[in-house]
Amino acid sequence: RPVILGRGAMGLLAASPPTGALGRSAWAQKPFPGTSAAAAGAAGPPGALDGGRRLALGAGAAERGSAESRRSWPFSGLATLGVAAAGLRRQCRRSSGKPSARLVGSTARAASVAPPPEGAAKKFVWAKWRTFWACFFGYSVCYFTRQSLSYTAPFLKQAMGWDSLAQIGQLSSLFPLAYGSSRFLGGVLGDRMSPSKVFCLGLSVCGALNIAFGLSSSLPMFALIWCLNGCFQGLVAPPCVKMITNWFDPKERGFWWSIWHASINLGGFCIPFLAGGLAQTFGWRYGMIGPGALAIGMAGLCFFLMQDGPKEAAPKVTKASQDGAPKGADEAKPAEAAKKIGVMEGIVMNPVQWALGLAYLLVYVCRQGLGIWGIFYLMHSGVPNAGKAAALFSGFELGGFMGNLTAGSFSDLLLRRAKPGDGEAGQRAKVVGVYFVATLVLLPLLGRCPSSWPLVQYSLLLGLGHFLCGAQLLLPLIAAEVAPKELTSTATGFIGWVGYFGAALSGLPLSRVVQGLGWGWYFTVLTTAAALGAALLVPLSSLKSYRQLAAEKAGS
């Protein structure tokens, strides 16, 4: 039927346009509702945009005429002309508004206008995964530049002739202070600028600073460069958060967030071989220069691979869809939708963000408290030497790797099973709350487990690593989802800044607790931190994401 109508009606009418009132109105009609003026003008008459299946001749008349056309196909042109005239009269009576002067175009040309570009979907998918894996491997390489000094320090100490560990301790203490302070700044820049460019800037500068460290020869210069490295490290993680949030749907975001976060474990596994191997073979300077050069090369690769979001991945397609939209569509949006929310209102003055930041601080107190002093406790409990204690404590790191992989998937599962109207962010908060409770149970068990049960100690450390690293993974994701879309990177940077005070508290203050009050109070402090974290998460179990709140506001 479309072929008969196209050749019969369209061909005859295009060759001999009707005259009179019928002709004046039938060839100059406004588009159907939902069809842009530009597309209608390019494609011909209304209804031709669907590839000729429904012309602007009236669908009902076309159906009746098609049956007659099949019965007397030699006269299909005349029969179709009658059908066309009936349809045109109907359209003439319905048409209104300013007419268009274009004549009817061919149905083949109309069909080419209607469908979206064939390769658009493939382009989006390719850009999505290209960006994700660039974030994954790029952040792994960034971790090289963060931990390079740890595995070069023994060779540096020997080459510089330092008698004690005081110089290395000074360098190590500067880094977390600088890094924690720069997380908030990195989040703000990730929202105000292109996150991919901020990521590449931070990674390349960190690489250059590692190289500069390897070319320096004095303690003051070492301290300055390493402090600057900590500052620029904060520019790398928040932009990754922004890009992952832009590309992934909330119901799959937790899993892929987990995969990305496991890049830390990959970097932590590889850097001893890279920095330590280079330092042992060629000297300590190459242990710093090697990771730095690799970071600069990776930054250049990420610059070409990353896309900030779906709109940046296919600007031509997006531009075409915007040009085809009816004029005034943007003006129809509510004024409040266009209102920008500032950092003070959306983050700093938001009690939810502070609650998440405090929970993140408590996670760091427990995690870093175990990470720094766990081996010393195992030796105090009866493990014979540091080597065996380190091997036993590896269960904590293994559990952390497993927690990074599973926490996001668990929260996604709850999200998919949630009832309509349940808080999306609250489902992830429930997982974090359960992880805090599990930590609360396992910490006293570890404190009472004798060294004669090494398998039990290993299992307890495995569980603690799983639950603490899983909570550490999910809290920034929750902060990003409850923040306005234009402040997701800032939100993760903010709670990262608050959380690093927990890392500071787990160092010197916790060592004073151990020295002055004993290991029993050490476990009391960690258990109290876990209990407070669980209490903070209880009122957040029904927390809704910003996307849900915006949809509810628009619906009302």
Quick recap of the structure?
It is built from 26 helices and no strands.
Structural features, described:
The protein is mostly helical and 556 residues long. The protein contains 26 helices and no strands. Helix 7 runs antiparallel to helix 14 (284-305) and helix 24 crosses helix 25 (519-537).
- Which overall shape is indicated by the principal axes computed on the Cα atoms? globular
User: How far apart are the first and last residues' alpha carbons, in Å?
Assistant: 46 Å
The main β sheet shows up as: none
Please identify the structural class as seen in this structure. mainly alpha
Fraction of residues in β-strands = under 5%
Count of helical segments? 26
Report the uncertain regions: 1-85, 91-116, 316-338
Q: How much helix, percentage-wise, in residues?
A: over 70%
Please write the string of helix (H) and strand (E) elements.
Answer: HHHHHHHHHHHHHHHHHHHHHHHHHH
Overall strand count:
0
Overall residue-averaged pLDDT value: 75
Relevant terms:
single chain, mainly alpha, 26 helices, globular, 556 residues
SSE layout and pairing:
Layout: H1 2-15, H2 20-26, H3 37-43, H4 59-71, H5 76-94, H6 107-113, H7 120-160, H8 166-192, H9 195-214, H10 219-233, H11 237-247, H12 250-261, H13 263-282, H14 284-305, H15 310-313, H16 315-324, H17 335-338, H18 343-348, H19 351-381, H20 386-417, H21 424-448, H22 454-482, H23 488-505, H24 508-517, H25 519-537, H26 546-555
